[in-house]
Amino acid sequence: MYLDWFAFYMTAGGPVMWVILFLSVAGAAVVFERLFFFSFEGRAPFAPEDVPAGADGETLRVLADRRVRAEVFGWQRNLALLEIVIRAAPMLGLLGTVLGMVEMFRVLNVGGALDAAAVTGGIREALFTTVAGLCCAIPLLIAHGLLCAAIDRREERLNRAADAWIRERLKRGGGTNAR
After folding, report:
1. What angle do CA 99, 104, 106 make, to 5 degrees?
2. Tens of pLDDT along 136-170?
3. What is the value of pTM for the model shown?
């Protein structure tokens, strides 16, 4: 039953539906991969490697910033792909709707006779792609927002840990000018 409905929906929406389906799967894969990554990520203490002996505060800040940027870069992996899917899916939905409407008017123009049931059925089928595009984009938009908020929280914690690390290094005589 569900397979028949799915086949009808995909066929009625036209070829654009398959592109939207592919984007939905790709977006969901990114979300699940990021959730998996964040759930199993180790919480290593903040300590940049290769700190020169007697490093001053500015050197420590540069090393800490480099470490923070590297971590955040890893956390944000594939989020650009998710953003592309979120932006493209509704646009593809509209494209599919416009293509469906063009086809419907082409058929009406060739047939000559106006059948209200055929017109409303054609509009209904043309709108399938808009619905599919929005159903793809909305949950992914919510997931993207939640992932970005989680990254922001982790980045703030990492920056605080970096500040504490720098203060501790300077207190131990690692340098003279704190920032």
Report:
1. 95
2. 999 999 999 999 999 999 999 999 999 988 888 88
3. 0.80
